[in-house]
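DM from R.C. (forwarded with permission)

"hey, sorry to bug you on a friday — could you get me a structure for this? deadline for the figure draft is monday and I only need the backbone to look sensible"
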Amino acid sequence: MAGHSARPRLRWKDDAEATAEAWQEWLERNFSRFEVGEVAVEEAVDEQELRVDWTLAQREEDVLGDETSLRASRPLGPVSQPFTLPPESRFTPVWFAYGDRDEVEVTVRWPEGWELDVVPSAASFDHEVGAFAAAAEVDEASRRLTFRRRFDVHDSVFGGRDKYAALRQLFGEAEKSDAQELVWVRR
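My reply, with the result:
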């Protein structure tokens, strides 16, 4: 996270250990179907940047299944379409508190005996109002996948039907992409 998005979580707790514990609890709530571990938090207060890394492992009680899935946009996604009004019916500008950027990088390794069954389609949208990109890189030989997702809203005020229509399309593309899951099956 960077800028305004990071600000509420920078120096979130009194010390590094308490901050890591708070992130651990937050991640466990957001990934309730998985074991969360190895939480590492890097704060760059002057740059207003925050990086949180962690590991996820399938819960022991779920290992007996023959399929597992993960929505790779989490924990910052999935995005849902907030702009349901058609452009011809919108007469006032859309206001955000600030422009924003969300970036997620997920690296997944899976055990021998499993194979990747479904990979989200790559997505891309770029306009003056914002941008969205999502893509997966798969290395079957090492049983590793890296998924990268970036969602940008470039400004805080969007007036006019054309900008509103583009903003609506941006969120629609993100919603469509974020609805896709990664799926693995046992061979």
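R.C.: lifesaver. Residues 65-187 form a domain with the Jelly Rolls fold (CATH 2.60.120.1130).
me: no worries. The longest strand covers residues 34-44.
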